[in-house]
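ok so I'm stuck.
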Amino acid sequence: MENLNEKCAIFGVYGKGIDVARLTFFGLFALQHRGQESSGIAVADGSDIKRHKDHGLVAQVFTEEAIDSLKGHIAIGHNRYSTSKGSGTEHIQPMVVGNGALAFAHNGNLPSTRALEEFLQGKVENTAGLSDSCLMAHAIHWYMEQGKALPDAVTAAYPLFTGAFSIVAMTKDTLVAARDPKGIRPLSLARLNGGFVVSSETCAFSTIDAKFVREILPGEMVTIDESGLSEKQIAEGEQKLDIFEFIYFARHDSELMGKSVYEVRKNFGKTLAREYPIDADVVVGVPETSLPCALGYAEQSGIPYEMGLNKNRYIQRTFIQPDQKLRDKSVKMKLTPIPGVLKGKRVVVIDDSIVRGTTSKPIIDLLFEAGATEVHFLVSSPPIRFPDFYGIDTPAQDSLIAYGKTVEEMRAAIGATSLHFLSLEGMLRSTGLPKESFSTSCFTGEYPVDLKERYDEINYPSDVSISSTSPKQMEPG
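replied:
not stuck anymore, here's the structure
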């Protein structure tokens, strides 16, 4: 609810005798939560690459006619939410460069493109205004022009990619997928009818009845062509998955690093209940990603869980923009309180994060207006004090409500009876995975990939503790 947005979703299919465009459509449909601004599919048939893309949701961009026009045995697809370089049609992916020689799609963000820009100087006409994805595609294509096959071209260009990325690239006869050396953005591999599928999340595999094989490793590239599947470690890998995949971005029914996203989110809620027991009458979750957390809190605390907030699930299905009066009431357009659940009740409301605080306050106001006598706002992640540079649309640091503020100052700003954040230690322990496996940069200011010139955008305040207020109670395990 705080308008955090992932940059994109990627999807790829290789298989002869398979309707790859249709399968990619359904894969992107399952990954719609990762990007709602635009969508595109490119298909190769052994001699040519065709593409269809446009602004809008997957179901708005693709018609039966569009899918039927994309015939071939290889496809890559992309859902986008822009975080930089604008939102014009030229930025909709997949990118196709070299007069149809290469199609390319990217999930993530390169905080520094200096190495790419310097490399491409004199090799392409003009790099000004090109997105990180477009620069990456041009670098790969340049190596292809020097005679390298796609896998070798990706390997050669790979050291120029400074940041977080999961990529799919396709020529007329070959599909390649790769992750950055830290594995910040997810990417998985599956089998389907003798072919292969790659996807940002495993939830897309069940949609098309593909069988999950494994996650593609940090620093690994997989190549799929007529000879089958080949795997190559093209850089030394160290797993640093963005913890926000578990907190917010991934769908409940996905698995990451062998863990159910749903179960981890329930664990967040259980840990919150142990850290911050509240004397209350009802537990409510902010739809959608916070609902498992609320269930976990209710289960651990013994306080009844209720659907106190109803979400309009069709809110993102229109291009008709609200006028300013309605825009100011955007939370009311998305959420409706259920007074019978809330009236006269002391409410614990669970949300996954607070970014600016601009939607937290209206949610709290809604609950009070519906008759709640107390609203205790609990967050299943620590305070976000630092901007993201790896593909999440966070604002500038001074726009973050937690930057330079104490928890009490934040509580007063959003109007809650009390405000509590899941501790960093509790969050990491709740995953059941080693804490070293994650990037927690938004909370700690520790960035696993060198930001280079972007470090100038970060301030490390000395007057405000990085951790939230101390938990009242902490149980081991």
